[in-house]
């Protein structure tokens, strides 16, 4: 059975916004009903932002209401006939302006909790550079006194699936592809976003120097 893109975050949303049984949510998200119950009890996924499967086209309101009326029914995920867009695997990750200040916290969390990850893996996950990672590790970062290790998933810098994939590669000893920062950006939107980020980073560096 196909699963939602982010099973645990989807389970959080369903627990918070529906009257579905733990078993129905667990079946839909590929989880154990006890894990769903732990989410409801606030013991698991604390602080995790729920992912709306209705807004993301994986469920309909009618399907949820149908299963709410009968706990013996199983939720059916929507299967899209149209081909889904394929994310670019190369090139720098664009991070919204509001999230840029969270990167050092995410880097610190990964260095503390997952030392098996290479700098290349962290660069790909967070969308940062190796010098920045080294500065956070060596405590020479300009904002070291204010850096607090926080999960990059909860900060919205990467998804749980991306983190788990990186950890899986690291544990199996597979090399992490280097980011190709010279990759040609395919769309005008990509070029505009990249230019905006570069300009903001330049301004930040100038402010620090002043």
From TrEMBL:
InterPro entries: TrcR (IPR010421). Pfam families: TrcR. This is Cytoplasmic protein.
């Amino acid at each position: 059975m196909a699963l939602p893109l982010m099973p645990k975050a989807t389970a959080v949303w369903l627990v918070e916004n529906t009257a579905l049984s733990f078993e129905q949510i667990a079946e839909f998200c590929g989880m154990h009903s006890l894990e769903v119950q732990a989410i409801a009890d606030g013991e698991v996924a604390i602080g995790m932002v729920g992912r709306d499967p209705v807004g993301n086209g994986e469920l309909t309101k009618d399907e949820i209401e149908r299963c709410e009326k009968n706990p013996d029914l199983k939720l059916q995920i929507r299967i899209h006939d149209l081909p889904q867009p394929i994310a670019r695997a190369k090139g720098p990750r664009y991070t919204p302006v509001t999230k840029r200040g969270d990167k050092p916290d995410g880097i610190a969390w990964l260095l503390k909790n997952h030392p098996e990850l290479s700098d290349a893996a962290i660069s790909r996950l967070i969308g940062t550079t190796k010098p920045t990672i080294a500065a956070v590790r060596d405590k020479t970062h300009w904002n070291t006194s204010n850096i607090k290790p926080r999960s990059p998933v909860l900060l919205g810098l990467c998804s749980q699936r991306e983190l788990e994939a990186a950890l899986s590669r690291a544990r199996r000893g597979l090399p992490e592809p280097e980011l190709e920062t010279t990759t040609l950006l395919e769309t005008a939107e990509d070029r505009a976003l990249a230019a905006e980020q570069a300009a903001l980073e330049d301004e930040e560096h100038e402010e620090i120097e002043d």
